[in-house]
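User: Please predict the structure of the protein below. I'd like the answer in structure-token form so I can feed it into my own downstream comparison script.

Assistant: Understood. Taking the following sequence of 535 residues as input:
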Amino acid sequence: MNATTTASTPRERRAATLVMACVGVFVAYLPVTSVSASLPAIQRSLDASTSQLSWVSDAFVLPMAALILTAGVFGDVHGRKKVFQAGLALSGAGALVALCAQSVQILWAGQALAGLGSAALLPTTLALISHAVPDPRERGRFIGLWATSLAAALALGPVIAGVVLDHYDWRWIYLLPVPASLAAMVCAAKLLTDSRAPGTRRLDWPGQLTAALTITTLVYGIIEGGATSFTDPKVMVALSTAAVGAVAFVVVERASGSPMLDLTLFRSPAFTATTLIAMISFLGLIGFFFTLSLYFGMVQRLSTLDAAWRLLMVSMVPLVLGATVGRLVHRVSPRVLIPGGLLIATAALLSLTNIGAHTSFGSLAWRLALLGLGMAFVITPMTATAVSSVPFHQAGMAAAGNNAFRQVGAALGPAVLGTLLSTEAVDALPGHLTDTGLTTPTVQHVTAVAEQGGIGAVAGLDLGADTPRALAALSEAFLDGLHVCLLVAAVLTLLAAAVGVLLLRRPRHPAPSGPVHTTTASHPEAVRPHPALNL
């Protein structure tokens, strides 16, 4: 296709939409694993604590989780092409800020801007595909390619970070998104056809404010509770505010004439199942990436590139199988694909609970590849099922809702597992220090440093001749915490599989139709229910 002209034929428009959607989701997800792989280097460079590292990840994910629904509505109302280009601009701007960061606070700001961009890109890319490809069977193949691009970003992120950190400062991992975003904006302006949702949707500010308040205070409470204490007054206020905000969100959405998340969508067992699975599985998966990257850096003391090759084992399998799984979506029932994939992922996580400081690449590789295989059978069917289980005119809202809950899980992952890792490791550290034969004053000193600055602070201590023994004790304490995190991730994944078995096995029900605002001939899809999957 000539990139200097607007796509004109239906086939060209669909091809242009697919390419732009794949580029958009690639830009949106590239920071996830590239930053995760760079966390040890960021920690050393900025002298960051474990809780501050959690905020490096969550500063990106929180805006995604909090604003993804509003971005979907904004695209429905004002045009998805505009929101798509705004998302690219914010992603590029965030990367540019992070590229210049000289403190962890500036890095948080850059991550937050990039997260805003991703919040705009994720629902918009799926809504553009749904509009361009109304046939559910054909759309499944397109969503398979979309998911492959997502997997490609997750796969290439650690490799890019590894190559950069072997030769340059960690800040240069943010260079690629800047020109990529600019080039995509230029191409989208020429090639992408704009679309809006039929009807009279409008922005739901009460829903947006209560959703953002709930998600932000919940993640803040978990991270700060782990760093200090869950009985700390500010933590208790944050968690209480999250509970009140969640109730308020349900109340205002039920009362809204144009909700950003129509709660009647949850009358569809398939949508409910995929939404819960998205949140639970990504909580475990992103939390797993967070803790595993620290394991490679603090325990195995690998270079970023060596760690990247290991992380690649997880993300490469979904990348290779994405298109194939997309074709399977309408040949194999989601009640088989999704719970089956989650059970495979559970087995992989359980197999990782006996890894140690000297576990070889080969011993890790098959376990990580098995985890990737399980997730390959979850990501594409999960998204396709969520979109196809609701009427056509609600596809954009369903995609945004599914992505929002996925990002809530992704935000909670580093918060929950990072807190658990730090707490378990700090609790186990004194015993391991004593076992190495260190003197009582040294044990007390190292323990105090860990309690004050987190386990990362211990790695930077200079104890003279005692340093090797202290680092060995730190590795053992870290492994204690990591094994608990892996067990928790496995339980969460198994819980997600149980949700799939219980809900996806129910007989088919008519998808919720919701309010239909227009019946004009120009938007016949607005009144034609989308064929529900035979679940």
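That's the full token string. Confidence is low (pLDDT under 50) at residues 1-8, 506-535.
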